[in-house]
Input
Amino acid sequence: MQVFRKVSLGISTILFPLSVFADYSWNFPTPATPMALDTLHVHNKFMLISMAIFVFVLAIMIYSIFAHRKSKGFKAVADKAPSTAVEIFWTLIPFAILLLIDFVIMGIPAYHSVVMMENTREKADMVIKITGSQWRWQYEYLDGDAKGVKFVSNLSTPKEQTDKGFDGKKDEHYLLEVDNHLVLPVGKKVRILITSTDVLHNWWVPQFGSSRVAVPGFLRETWVQVEKEGTYRGQCKELCGKGHGYMPIVVDAMQADEYKTWIATKKDELAKASAGADKKWTKEDLVADGKGVYEKNCAVCHQVNGAGLPPAFPALTGSKIVASPIFGADGKYLKDSHLDRVLNGKNVMPSWKALLNDTEIASVITYERNALGNSVGDVLQPSQVKAARQ
Amino acid sequence: MSSTTVAHHDDHAEHPTGIMRWLTTTNHKDIGTMYLTFSLIMFFIGGAMILGIRAELFKPGLQLMNPEFFNQLIGVHALIMIFAALMPAATGFANWMIPLQIGAPDMALPRLNNWGFWLLPPSAILLTLPFTLALFGIGDGALATGWTFYPPLSVQGGIGVDFAIFAVHLLGISSVLGSINVIVTIFNMRAPGMTLMKMPMFVWGWLITAFLLIATIPVLAGGVTMLLTDRHFGTHFFDAAGGGDPVMFQHLFWFFGHPEVYIVLLPVWGFIPQILETFSRKPMYGYKAQVYSLWGIGALSVVVWAHHFFSAGMPVPALLYFMYSTMAISLPLAVLFFCWIKTMWRGSMSFETPMLFTVGWIILFGIGGLTGLVLADVAADAQYHNSYFVVAHFHYTLFAGGIMGIMAGTYYWLPKMTGHMYSEKLGKLHFWLTAISFNMTFIPQFFLGLAGMPRRIPDYALQFAEFNMISSIAAFTLGFSQLLFVYNIVSCARGGKKATDKVWEGAKGLEWTLPSPPPYHSFTEQPVIK
Output
């Protein structure tokens, strides 16, 4: 009994440091979709096979290392090359084993996984479109009750926490929290169309087991079917510039009734925003709203104070484009004017046409022209932006 | 390598001394030494970059650098390590050892050889200059797209991208020139009686590498040139708005990029069995099987490229094809592993530093290979792709499989090249420090990847903190352990116990019939192979 106690004491001493990581994941996070479950099974199975091969081969080698040593006086066996027939026989054994593992044990389930992963259209209950941009995601519901719902999802971790040298306490979901969550109904097969407005991005939620690159100018597709209510987090996983680490994904999976309520609130918000575009705004209100829009969308490159990061990201303070008039004599906006640049973008500057609504564009432009050390003095009304879109 | 060590090469050994010797040399040994020295210097520059990154990733939050600079470090680290550290090291060994192993007096094209080397320093400068220029306010730093240059990000990028494109062009020309030289040398200058199937395995490995380089480098050069014209001359190869496709670049890049892995590894697979037979005191097992396997891997390597971007979207038949063809690489590789272990089996082994590195290499490269097999599975790849799992996987193949292999080769041939024995005690210490800290660096990264940490992010969520901290501490240990490597090499070059001609008790091959160090001009009369 003494021996047992000593052994168990020894084991627990070795394992103790591991218990620090007790709540740490050593494998994929808990799967939430059939595809993630399948991936986990495939991964576990392959890892077991790999480990078995590894341990088996290693055992032979280690045995040889200890047994066939010169220092133990072991003499090398007869110094002659094996005959070709014997050689072929022996070398075909590992070949055959791997053939079986690759194309039968691993190959057959892998085939079914691929077919399942790529079957995006069959029995899809709804379709959403995801658009990646530097450095945010936009979600649009294309059919069903939620048709027309469309919003942008930005990182919402406070900026001071992500700043260089911040040493205080970070939020629980540091870098994995956004302002607008994507909401999906539980148990429904959702076909996802994915594209990008600028560079490559990759929409990845580990618990969904699906990841697809967003390619500008092309539509790619994948699908998810979330089986359990909850909040799921992921990140962009294709290097997309300096904000690559700052465009997380948060998905809420909801039961049907909750989902319906959410749609109603979302539609209400959209209607209000659209109504706001038609009324006449005061300069003060636009500047006040514009500050929020600016800090959420523009400050990452042009900086909170408008100083920019030249040469890649020019300063807005004292900018020629900001200081010049927006509209020409004919009432149309001018090429290379402030509005043109925000709506259509140029080079690194993205096009904001699809990402911001009329009120947001009007307020952010008015803010940039009347704050950040600029005082152009004019006001851009949301209705003018609405007209400019046509 | 002083000219007084060996008496019988007096009249042919006239060459300039001092700096002019190194600038003008066309001698294969001198050029080999320059390649190896260059590689070692670049290994430390690339290493310093990654230590900057590991320091930044030590804990969550930004501490040392902004994300732009972080992105520049990761891409330039990779380009330097692959093109300026690993490949020149392999070419250095080719220059030194191919003529010695096949009984030739020199490489076939000595002036080309000189040119091939002198293209390297300018390209290293091109890669790193944008960092310096940015300090003076010119441009916004080096390439910030990762080493893969993916458009449209690389079309958007600053002058760093142009510098990197031209650096890749120069490095590519250098590699192609070196490859032509290797092929011509091997086909024309073997000692009488050395048929192809009697060539040392290292020569075989390099021959296949040379063919792969000539086949794939032009595709990379074409790809990055198209990128250059997209950036500056208004073409739309990779821009959908003009009828192009960003994913096409990935096809072009990885048509080069995947064989590149084998380009780096094949020379190592060549000398590993030679080291094994030396220290097992027993001929290598399955010479023919190994040669055929090397050819098989070389051939397969050019038809599997798209497994690097399964999630970029592809038709199902293409996914299946690239999955199964990738898995097929494990078949010849299994034969190689079997032959290596069978060479050790019932030998009379001793464990000097080169053998230690070789045994460690087999184990660690085995981990790299097996995780690669799992990565081939398309569905699972959706999870692994671009996560830290992949980072760990390719460091097992390229650091363990590549650099630790090169270290084994260095300790194996160092006494031959310098004429002195290195310190066995320090060599073994270097091995154990490297092997342990390497595993401590990258095993946590497997778990980080599984837990969902993407690669190439400058800052990360709190749940990834512990593993990153372990990885960073180990990475610094790994980095500083390499100072021991330099110390071993330098002190061995400067003096120490005289090495015998054969150096190792079980050594076989023509290079061990020459004095240590070999005379400046060797094999002026070709030996005859029975």
About this structure: Chain B has a mean pLDDT of 91. The two ends of chain B are 31 Å apart (CA to CA). The longest helix of chain B spans residues 67-102.
